[in-house]
Amino acid sequence: MNTDLCQYDEKRIAVSNMDKSVTHIVIPKDVKRIKEKAFCGYASLQKIEIPNSVEEICSSAFEGCISLKSIQLPNSVTRIGWYVFKNCSSLENIIIPDSVEQVGGFAFEDCKSLKSVVLPNTIKEIEWRAFKGCTSLEEIVIPVSVKK
């Protein structure tokens, strides 16, 4: 990803003037936070490479990425914000690493192709309706570490 496609502010990424028809995005290695709505509505996006520097994925960062089938979050991510993957209707698989402690409300809302979710034993909080509308979800394993 070229740096002229992004605005950097305190190691956060916000995308500006990027062609929303891109299919593959590589987040730069020094980014710590993916900003709200950074890739919202990128309907052609199929692959995202997120480096180990990213600690937080903010609200609606990938909302509406309807071509995204799977994503692997690095072990540095501790929080998945509200609506992050909302309406990612092709998302079938997501690996949630042990570093994640919180999943925001509606984070996976209407991920209609999502079949199975295994949450790490380190997760403490799953916010309201995190998996609302996941009509293909056959199994979700919620660890005893979840308090809310």
Contiguous uncertain segments of 5+ residues: 1-14
What's the arrangement of strands in the largest beta sheet? 1-2-4-6-8-10-12
Radius of gyration: 14 Å
Q: Give the overall average pLDDT.
A: 87
Tally of extended strands?
Answer: 13
Residues in β-strands, percent: 15-25%
Element order: H for helix, E for strand: EEEEEEEEEEEEE
Give a quick account of the main beta sheet: strands, pairing sense, barrel closure: 7 strands, mixed
Counting helices, strands and paired strands, the structural category is: mainly beta
Oligomeric state of the chains in view: single chain
Give an account of the 3D structure:
The protein has no helices and 13 strands. It has a 7-stranded mixed β-sheet, with no helix packed on it. Strands 3-5 form a two-stranded parallel ribbon. It has strands spanning about 5-10, 10-15, 25, 35, 45-50, 55, 70, 80, 95, 100-105, 115-120, 125, 140. The N and C termini lie far apart (about 35 Å). It has about 150 residues and is mostly beta strands. It is globular.
Question: Which descriptors apply to this entry?
Answer:
148 residues, mainly beta, 7-stranded mixed β-sheet, 13 strands, 24% strand, globular, disordered N terminus
